[in-house]
Amino acid sequence: MLKISAKAIFLSLFFVGVIVSFYLVNLAEQGVAYGQEKVVYALPYPGILPDHPLYFAKVVRDKLMEWMTRDYLKKADLYRLFSDKRVNMATFLIKKGKNKLAITTFSKGEKYFLKIPSLLLDSKKQGVAPSSELIDSLKLSNAKHRELATELLKSVSPSQIAAVEEILKLNQEIKNKLNQL
């Protein structure tokens, strides 16, 4: 008859625990949380936030850059940068407790992003198709915006939920247009 000692059982359970913990740590490093995958896309540092007194200078600079950029693909990439920065600004503003300003800023970011698909179509009409890398990065950015807007829903007051849902509708519209390219 096979005799199993308490020491052997303890060691077996210990090794199973170690293996399971390595598996869980690996899942956490991959960005998996509560059955949902995190989008792996780094948003750029936003710089000056809309609540700063010198923010107007940043807006003027952005308008100048937008006006001076004539190439459709470069302008699309510029709009993505502006959009990503505003979405990241919104996350910083939420942390500061400025939910209303965060929602407005997030919305402006999505409106910048909404301009991109038409620029890409215009570029195609002129014979310059966007690269697959650009399309992929736009889709990743859009997915990251959706993820952050969904998180924003959890931290706003009930009266602000409708505004965040409008952002999510814009995001879905952008996704649909990107998928048509």
Explain what the structure shows.
It comes from Candidatus Roizmanbacteria bacterium CG_4_8_14_3_um_filter_36_10. InterPro entries: DUF5667. This is DUF5667 domain-containing protein. By secondary structure, the chain is mainly alpha-helical. It folds into two domains: 32 residues; 126 residues. The chain is 73% helix and 2% strand. It is built from seven helices and two strands. β1 and β2 form a beta hairpin. About 4% of the residues have low confidence.
Gyration radius, to the nearest Å?
A: 23 Å
Give start-end ranges of low-pLDDT stretches: 28-35
- Kindly name the structural category: mainly alpha
Helix content percent band = over 70%
Average pLDDT, rounded to a whole number, is 86
Strand % is under 5%
What is the CA-CA span between the terminal residues? 69 Å
Order of helices and strands: HEEHHHHHH
List the helices and strands and how they pair.
Blueprint (H helix, E strand, L loop, with lengths): L5 H24 L2 E2 L2 E2 L17 H14 L3 H24 L3 H16 L1 H10 L6 H24 L5 H20 L1
Helix pairs in contact: 3-4, 3-5, 3-6, 4-6, 4-7, 6-7
Concise synopsis of the structure shown:
With 181 residues, this protein is an all-alpha fold. The protein is built from 7 helices and 2 strands. Strand 1 and strand 2 form a beta hairpin.
Task: Name a few traits of the molecule.
181 residues; mainly alpha; 2 domains; two-stranded antiparallel ribbon; 7 helices; 2 strands; 73% helix; extended
